[in-house]
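User: For my dataset I need records formatted as: sequence, then structure tokens, nothing else. Please produce one.
Assistant:
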Amino acid sequence: MEAVFITICRGALWIKKSLLFIILKVDSLEKLYGAQLVWKIDSYAEKYEEAKSGKKITIYSPPFLTSRHGYKMALSACLNGDGKGMGQINSCSPSVIILIWPFYIEFRMRIL
């Protein structure tokens, strides 16, 4: 019986270590160099309700770089829409934090 308990504890420890490894990988993916960002919005339903109530209309992604020495950018999202689309559609747009003119960057967004 004791051997079974020890085996279960080792399995739980392995699962915990694996989960921590995955969390660190996701965190590093969110801070990629290059014009790409993986932004996981935690507690989406809660943030959506805050946007609907007007408490916090806009949320911001972690900053990312367009290249190793490129523009520093972040995405902003209005989960309940903004302007004419308020209450109808989500909106998402880039925010350039450090900008050197002229600014010529093409970007594409995918919302999953």
